[in-house]
TrEMBL record:
Residues 34-177 form the Thioredoxin domain. The lineage of its organism: Bacteria, Pseudomonadati, Pseudomonadota, Alphaproteobacteria, Hyphomicrobiales. The keyword Oxidoreductase does not apply. Pfam families: Redoxin. CDD domains: TlpA_like_DsbE. Keywords: Cytochrome c-type biogenesis, Disulfide bond, Redox-active center. This is DsbE family thiol:disulfide interchange protein. It comes from the Bacteria. Belongs to the thioredoxin family. DsbE subfamily. It comes from Devosia honganensis. Gene3D superfamilies: Glutaredoxin. Signal peptide: none annotated. It is found in: Cell envelope.
Length: 177
């Protein structure tokens, strides 16, 4: 009995080391979403006040594949990612919607005025409720919704050229076919 008491911590340590060993090469940017292959949550977002594009809602996502990007003016990685979104829009012609996360309208307008507005629609999510429903961990995050309104792809963190070429563009092409 006395040996079992001393063996328990050793067994726990071996189990913990085994868990780390099996997950050490896991892609840390991969955050699985329970929403993949499920319909987009029900929501309605008003437009950002003073911006010349509309807000959007769940029904707006149906009809054609749509990239939904969650961003904020105070988010430094969003600033870094923004030129890639503009290039994605120009090169692929995909419909691009933005969820402006927890931002004052004047800040969102200034951000898009400075960097350009690649979005076809931008919804104001000032209370973060819609972001929570979408399972957003932080900004930026990017989703692809197919023509039936089903979320088929999620990228956590700023998009990179590699992620766009190897993941997002193939997902867009698959959603278009």
């Amino acid at each position: 009995m006395r040996y079992a008491f001393f063996a328990l911590p050793l067994i726990a340590l071996v189990a913990l080391v085994a868990v780390f060993a099996f997950t050490i090469d896991r892609d840390s940017s991969l955050v699985r979403s329970v929403l993949i292959d499920k319909p987009a949550p029900r929501f309605a977002l008003a437009p950002v006040e003073g911006l010349d594009v509309p807000g959007f809602e769940t029904a707006t996502l149906a009809g054609e594949p749509t990239v939904v990007n969650v961003f904020a003016s105070w988010c430094i990685p969003c600033r870094d990612e923004h030129p890639l979104l503009e290039a994605l829009k120009a090169d692929s012609g995909v419909r691009l919607f933005g969820i402006n996360h927890s931002d004052a309208p004047e800040n969102a307008r200034a951000f898009l005025a400075e960097l350009g507005n690649p979005y076809d629609a931008v919804g104001a999510d000032r209370d973060r409720r819609v972001s929570i429903d979408w399972g957003v961990y932080g900004v930026p995050e990017t989703f692809l919704v197919d023509a039936e309104g089903v979320i088929v792809y999620k990228h956590v963190g700023p998009l990179t050229p590699r992620a766009i070429v190897e993941e997002l563009l193939p997902a867009i092409e698959k959603a278009r076919s």
